[in-house]
Amino acid sequence: MQITRRLWLGLGALLIVSFGIMLWIGKDLYQTAPPMPEQVVTESGEVLYTRADIEAGRRVWQEMGGQQSGSIWGHGALVAPDWSAEWLHKEVVAMLDIRSRIEFGMPYEQLNESEQAKLHAEIKPEIRANTYDPQTGSIVVSDERAQAISQVAAHYMSVFSNDPATHELREAYAIRENPVPDENSRRLMTGFFFWASWATVTNRPDDVKSYTNNFPHEPLVGNVPTSSSFMWSMFSILFMIAGIGLLSWHYAAYHGKEKPLAPPSQDPARAIVVTPSMRATAKYFWLVMALFLVQILMGATTAHYQVEGQEAYGFALSEWLPYAVTRSWHTQLAILWIATAWLATGLYLGPAISGHEPKYQKFGVNFLFISLIIIVVGAFAGQWMAVMGKLGKIPNFWFGHQGWEYVDIGRFWQIYLFIGLMLWLTLVGRALWPAMRAKNQTSSIAGLLFLSTVAIGILYAAGLMWKENTHISIVTYWKFWIVHLWVEGFFEVFAVAVISFIFVKLGLVRGRSATINVLFATIVFMAGGVLGMFHHLYFAGVTTGVIALGASISALEVVPLALIGLEAHETWKSSRATPWMQQYKWPIMFFLAVSFWNLIGAGLLGFLINTPLALFYMQGTNLTAAHGHTALFGVYGMLGIGLMLYCLRGLKPDLVWREGLLRSGFWALNIGLLLMMTLTLLPMGVLQLEANLENGYWYARSAEFMTRPIIDVLVWLRVPGDTVFAAGAFMIALFVLSLWLGPRRAREPIAGVLETESSL
């Protein structure tokens, strides 16, 4: 059996087993998720909340921004508190104070240590006891606890109103005045906050850990890491070391055994005929740069909210463009502009690989472009109207803001985007089909490229798997089918296949070698990338078995990154193989940047927060933000720009590139991202980690902590990095614009080498 066939069979078996396990665990999660009660009642019979109240309260929370304004169970924005953690702490403190006044006749904080310890020992069993009755669907709380719940609810009803007493908190949380004008809606939202907090501290039946595996850290009531978190964190490190060792052995045994391939004397890519549909992709790259620049503007605005809270240098910005909106747009635009670059690359490469221009291909490319613009404008307008309370009777879930980070556009726009992805899949597939049928050296690469487009398109359907009132654990499960499997799964396959095709097409790598390497790399990526999704679910209602599986497999995500330096060296050697490769210097420089940030952002910072024990203390802090920024932009953003530049070289082969703009833009983007990480995100995250270890998660996310002078200094230290980064993006955009406005033609090529400028 040929090695290529064996690798295909191995990949197929791996994917079948992996997705089978994911579906099996998803079915299990439906049964083990924290129960939604029919009612919350006191021992004396008073009904505090009904199921309808809790579900309606969640809809209120989602409409005002949901996970874009604070977080639940650690998932969401970082300026406002984690509402589940803060409610838990406030409820415990209120219970301690009530009990202290009953037993000692004085406030809790005036007691000595032994008296406080006595109350801790009394309160802990009560608050951790599971009083949910599956027969009646009721949660029963003591009258004393009901009094504490009432006090905490009153606090949040004040926070989400325009009460002057809590104005400073709204400012610290970057929440506009009176975000939930209706008093009953605020009361309903407190029901959802209570239930989310109840799930974090209530022991599972016949167990000593909560439904969220004791997350968040709250030492007052024993919410500390479980023994399984320690154990599987240790084993995950061993799995990672073993995986790196095996991959290193394979690399040493099999890599570099072939003789180097003599590069062609002239650029083979110049023989590619640019078809009408390929030429039509140019407008996608204009859209990429426009979305990128707006995303940076929204990011700067979102960051500034940490400084002033509700204003921008005296202007009441939150009344017109609230934090929940700017952060929603910032995260959505990051995904959209990167995805648009990849969509355009697929549309460009399809005919380039096969040499076939299907009928009406250009029309399809143009129709998809118009659809993307409609989706962006419509979805963003709906999100703004939802957060501002202007949707009226229009269903928020369908046309407004769903409240789920990364996938928060309305369901109508989700369906429209899914249809657009299916159209993209069709356009790329019909263009690639002749290449996949050719059975030559690159047919497997074309097949993998098509497989990745199929997966990227179809996986977005996971975002359609929940309804308006679906359990939050189930929503989290399906959400990360998209977020994780796109970013750490099939985007990787797409990237490897595209870059390999580029080097094969340029005559720098043998087709057979590239095919084997791509298939092997895909197997390695998928081995950790698919089931590695479960590290996002450690505290979303799963059982210990899922934590064990997630920890073990997530560790393997780091394995292929261990040899990233060798990959970068191979890429660098390819760029210097022949003089005409200077035409592709900047696409390859961005590919090299991808290797660097893959090691730093996805590798080091990713594994820093990946183990169950680490994530217990780091989820929802700026350490996760450091990983998110460096992995998403550093890897996929840089790759998107690199692919864009490769396509632009093909679309404009005879133009002189303004090297000065590219050089300055490249280094500004990388230096800016590095400054952003080292001056703000990492040190702030470390301080939050220390605060969590000492006082609990609630404190690391509290207004008291986030308004400390050192935090203000670190926030202001984002300005240098953000400024340099924005300048880099502007220079890249200016370069793209220069290819159409004021282009400079090259003289006749000499020995296949185009004349280029060394500066502006």
From TrEMBL:
Membrane-spanning segments: 7-26, 230-249, 284-305, 329-351, 363-386, 413-433, 445-466, 478-504, 516-539, 545-566, 586-609, 629-648, 660-682, 724-742
Pfam families: COX1, NorB_cytochrome_c-like
InterPro entries associated with the record: Cyt_c_oxase-like_su1_dom (IPR023616), Cyt_c_oxase-like_su1_sf (IPR036927), Cyt_C_Oxase_1 (IPR000883), NorB_cytochrome_c-like (IPR054309)
Gene Ontology molecular-function annotations: cytochrome-c oxidase activity; heme binding
Domain named Cytochrome oxidase subunit I profile: residues: 323-760
GO biological process: aerobic respiration
Any single Gene Ontology cellular-component annotation: membrane
Keywords, comma-separated and alphabetical: Electron transport, Membrane, Respiratory chain, Transmembrane, Transmembrane helix, Transport
Official protein name in the record: Nitric-oxide reductase large subunit
Organism: Novilysobacter ciconiae
